[in-house]
Amino acid sequence: MCFGFQESNRLLRKEMTSSTIEKGISIDLIDTPCLLVDMALVEKNLKTLFSKLSGTNVKVRPHLKTVKSPEFAKLLLAAGATGVCVAKLSEAEVMAAAGIEDILITTEIMGAPKLERLEKLIAKHAQVKVVIDSAVGACAMQNAAKNAGVKLSVFLELNVGQNRAGVEPGEPALRIANEISKQSNLQLIGIQGYEGHLQLLPDETERKRLCAESMEKLMSTVALLRQNGHKIDVITTGGTGTSEYCVEAGANEVQPGSFIFMDVAYRRAIGQRYENALTVVSTVISKPSESRCVIDAGFKSLSTDSGNAELRSHTNMTYRPAGDEHGIIESSNSKLQLEIGDRVELIPSHIDTTVNLHDYYYCHRGGRIENVWRLSARGKVQ
After folding, report:
1. Parallel, antiparallel, or unpaired for β 59-60 and 368-374?
2. Model confidence, pTM
């Protein structure tokens, strides 16, 4: 028995020593912990989203803070997305370097090092867009655009209830729009209002009602800006949990991100609208008792900001992290149906923060590796 285990390890080492993993090998030969992506389910999720919005003239600008990968960005664009969002300038740099042009950076950019980098980016990539929510921000973007010798497209960011960034609706928003219009190198093309505080509300009726309230703030401000001569072409908003409600209220662009992979938190909120296409695969490394085993995935493999991950196929078992590199699986029954060396798949509780812990996606179809894609924007938070 020991020989057999060692022999399988020898074969595994032979298979995995090359710098790239061969296409077509079994997913059982991939080392753990790792991100495993079922491409058939990804394609199903893409079809579900774009089918819902077909015929609405609403553009989809997926948020890449979820995938952090140019390869998945290109997959989204091929499926029908008209552009992409990123959260940070460093993510935009990665995507632009990979040939992706229509990029909206959804977080305000401030500070001398970032502004210098922004100048270089927009000088080479004319379709990069930014958000502004203050007169200070308008001035900073004007200087960057002037130094780069470009006319920079900007969105006014509005606080629609999340109470994060964003100018307040109504007259405060109009004042900032007026400031933007004074800048010779800026062009106000749209407004952004993200109702992130509503994405995970489990009561769909309440989520829809509160989304309507947020959208009223957004649409009334759009009307005010237009009445005062501002050309607001794009109304961008919405996430995985609210996009369809935003469309009903008048948005013409949505920014869902998590839908492509899904996670436990979104499943609890919106049900099985989309499939869980990504799991973290882990190996049982110890079994101290009949009802408890230890796996090689802890805090450094699975984020816990939205609770603990769940096992994909073992409904009578629960997972909890037990340190940086250890996790514990326990059974509600007296005996755990797992042994040392077994592998388990876990559905992350929060996809965005889990993905950012890993270097590669192991993309498979029918249990055979199709591609291994690097998370090129992993850790890009500046």
Report:
1. unpaired
2. 0.94
